[in-house]
Each structure stands twice: as C-alpha cells, then as structure tokens.
Amino acid sequence: KSFVSNYPKEKNLDAALYWLAFALTKQEKYGQADAHLKRLLTEFPRSNWADDANALRAQIAQHSGNQRVIEETLNKDDVEVKIVALESLFASNPERGAAYVAEMMKPGSKASTRLKEAGIELLRRHGGKQAIDLLLDIIRNQTDSKLRAAAIHTLGRTGDESVLPLLKDLATTSTD
Fold first, then answer.
1. CA-CA distances (angstroms) from residue 46 to 41, 74, 155?
2. Which residues contact 168 (CB under 8 A, 6 or more apart)?
3. What is the pLDDT of residues 135-152, one digit of tens each?
4. CA angle 79, 81, 86 (to 5 degrees)
5. Which of these, 96, 99, 95, 109, lies nearest to 144 by C-alpha position?
6. Sequence-ordered list of residues with C-beta below 8 angstroms from that of 122, at least 6 positions apart, any chain
7. Where are the alpha helices (DSSP H) in 27-141?
8. Is residue 74 a contact partner of residue 39, using CB atoms and an 8 Å limit?
9. Are 86 and 117 in contact (CB under 8 A)?
10. Which is it for the CA torsion 4, 55, 28, 96, positive or negative?
11. What pLDDT does residue 65 have?
C-alpha cells in the first residue's frame, strides 16, 4: 500500500496495484480490493496484469453480490477469465449460472468449446436438479459430439440414480 501511494509514477505500479488487491482479498476486504483493481484497469488497460485483475474482480464479486462485474467479465475475450466469471456466477446465483450455460449451448452461440465444457462441469457442481434437465437437453440436442460426451460423463457423475436407464440406453444404442 505504501509503494502505491509513495511511487504513483513507478513503471510497475500496475503490478503493485494487483498485488495490493490480492492481499486485500486474502484479508476479505473485498471493496478495497475491487477499488484498486478498477484503478489498475482504468489507468493501465493494456497492462499484463489486466486479465488477472478482471479474473480477481469476478472472483470477489461473488462476495459482494456485484453481478454487473461478473456479467462484464463474461463479455471479455479471454476464455480463462470467462471461466472464472462463470464460476463466480454459479457461486453467487446458481440459477443464473445455469441459465447462462443453457444460453451458450444454443445453436449459433459464439461461446468456445472450452467455456462450454467448463459450463457443463459447473452444472454438475452447482446446478442441483435443474442441472440434470439441462444436461439431458445437451445430450439430446447438442450437435458437437465432444460436448455431448462431456455432458454424458458429467451426468454419470451427478450421483442421481434416476439417470441410470438413460445412461444404459446411451451405452448400448449410441452410434458415436
């Protein structure tokens, strides 16, 4: 904190802002951390620390309930940052997380396969009963066989015995 205030023109100020925010996050001072991350992103938008700052903002947003930050982060280009934001969305609002995954599974979605795979796994961890229905929809309607396979694998890991007949049927009749 002293470095940031004593050396406002230092070339590594962006890194100092990030690590200050990281330390404040560990102390559960989420509002202060977010303020430093916002400063980093405003003053150094092209910083090497920008993606990390966006990811950390998305992570701490779940503690403050700041859905706007999560939504903004989901619109970024970096897939790994989007995954962190999606995890935060599921942690703070599982229904909205499931709805987001359902939307990105629709035909014509521009979401990457990696993000969709992460969404499938997050459904298993956080989606509850709604996840089963969405996984079944992915299995029945998804054209990407890799994503269908991920949904089948995830469905098998839910522990819901009601899906066993479907899994058995898929194992014995599937052609791919």
1. 8, 18, 41
2. none
3. 988 988 888 889 999 999
4. 90
5. 109
6. 86, 87, 90, 97, 101
7. 30-43, 50-64, 67-74, 79-92, 94-104, 113-126, 128-141
8. no
9. no
10. positive
11. 63
